[in-house]
Amino acid sequence: MTSPSPKGIVEARAAQAHPMIALPSHDELVEQLFIRDLKQFVMAELEPAQQRIAEKLESAITPPASNDPVGALRRQMEQVESFGAWLSLKRESQRQLWYAVTDCVERQAAELQALGRIDNPKGSLTIDPDFQAPDYITRGDIHLMPGGNAYDDGTLLQGAVMDRGGAVYMLGRNGGMLNDLRGQTAMAHLLTIAPDIKPARILDMGCGIGTSTVPAALCFPEADVHGIDVGGSMLRYAHARAEHLGAAVHFARQSAERTNFAAASFDVVYSCAMLHETSPAAMVNILAESRRLLRPGGVAIHLEVPLLHTFGDLWQELSAELEAQFNNEPNWRGALSVDYAQMMRAAGFSDVRAGYQATAFNARLSPKKFGDTSDGVFRSWFVTSGRV
Amino acid sequence: MTQVHGAAAVLPRTPNRLDPIPGRRSLDDQTLAMIVSLASEVTILRARLDACERLLVAANIFTPDAVDNFTPDEAAQAARERQRLHGMAKIFRPLREAASAALAALSAHDEVQP
Questions:
Q1: Is the pLDDT reported for residue A128 higher than 60?
Q2: Would you say residue B57 lies in a domain?
Q3: Which has the higher per-residue pLDDT, A229 or B5?
Q4: Which residues of A touch B18 (CB under 8 A)?
Q5: In angstroms, rounded to a whole number, what is the distance separating the alpha carbons of residues A331 and A254?
Q6: Residue B107 lies in a domain
Q7: pLDDT reported for residue B62
Q8: Which fold has domain A157-387?
Q9: Residues in Cβ contact with A199 at an 8 Å cutoff, skipping those fewer than 6 apart
Q10: Residue B7 resides in a domain
């Protein structure tokens, strides 16, 4: 027999980070750990060999035989059989993730639905049944999550899939079962640039299941906190999850490109890793909407994954391009290669910043470090901010 | 709408938009997916057996011939059949998807025929 997993198997709801998350059985947990380890294996054991192959092929491309060196490298790599096998296994590991998590959620559907019925909620939920999700959301299921972000079957189960799946997808590097470090980091950035701010009204755009919204509500308990996104199921789950975590949040199904909130009605508008799931045109609209919604003195914050130019080599750029295409990240290249400072100024913001905020485990207690350079993936996040 | 009470909940399983991977035959990917599923199932099975063995040994009730001498009753046989069918749906999912896609393509072709 092999030795037991050092992480152990803990299935009691009380032992989880929040009571809404779908709990795995013994077999389901082993399956999810297998997928987590498979993803790690693909990334740490298989990808380095592809990178070394790329470095050898890359040397044949320079001096500049092409004004599209990433495309030239890609065409060469596509002739290498192990490259295709690596890419197939990488995508299959993602498909396995959703398959396994959906099993886990479907098994306890009735219990999760019951947990979602909240008496006397502190926050609220508004779902417009006529809402039409933007085409960049519907033309490919983001992260290969079957049904997609806009899915709405009248239950909260797709939200439960997204929550459990997100925790496995992030390999525990984003705040474990709470998966909330991006929200904590956005709030840490706010406190870095405005240490004494006391916002009365905060909006999280593209809130998903509220992992980034709850940190705002807990960091600023006096504030009126709102979260918007495109999926009815996700938002039902977000509402229940926030209530179980003791956070008062008002969730609504709306597009971040054009909301129904009044102009100049918020003190803080922010998003976390949302822009790369939109489109180049939508990014412009979202920054303009952020500007419209803020009161004088208000702050907009948009957090993203590290920008492409900080990766520094062709393989990393190609790897990012493959992630965009084969993991359905609709605006990966657009969001990761623009000049955010210029875009924010063009949207009418002043006091514009663009740089890297150190990952915060707790927005108020963690060190407030913001600068020009990335500390690496998951150790810091790209952030742009501006004031009205 | 997903039914939660009465019938079991059924959520989507196949994502919209799976771009073909250059240089890979569809069957290559189907085979790989099946191997990953099998590896997953074997891993789960080993963990479960490991847990059982440890519990039985700890309880001092496990004997080496207990499994070989075990005969499942009717309920156990039904449960084991459900487990087998679930495993098959998971493992051979790529073949079912490919056949459905081929059928859909043929149906679309038929519709445009005079």
A1: yes
A2: yes
A3: A229
A4: 91, 144
A5: 19
A6: no
A7: 76
A8: Rossmann fold (3.40.50)
A9: A220, A223, A266, A267, A268
A10: no
- Of the candidates B9, B21, B48, which has its C-beta nearest A26's C-beta? B48
| pLDDT attached to residue B110 | 73
pLDDT per position as a tens digit, A152-191: 999 999 999 999 998 887 766 676 788 899 999 999 999 9
Task: Check if the interface score ipTM surpasses 0.85.
Answer: no
Spatial distance between the Cα atoms of A315 and A65, rounded to a whole number of angstroms: 17
Measured between alpha carbons, how far is A302 from A190 in angstroms, rounded to an integer?
11
Q: Which two tokens stand for residue A248?
A: 């008062």
Residues of A within 8 A of B9 (CB-CB) are 105-106, 109-110, 155, 157
- Cβ contact A102:A288 at 8 Å: no
Longest dimension (CA), chain B: 74
DSSP string, B22-63: TT--HHHHHHHHHHHHHHHHHHHHHHHHHHHHHHHHHTT---
Cα–Cα distance, A127 to B112 (Å, whole number): 40
Cα–Cα distance between A95 and A262 in angstroms, integer?
41
Which residues from A are below 8 Å from B8, CB to CB? 106, 109
**Number of independent structural domains in chain B:** 1
User: Which tens digits make up the pLDDT trace of A236-252?
Assistant: 999 999 999 999 999 99
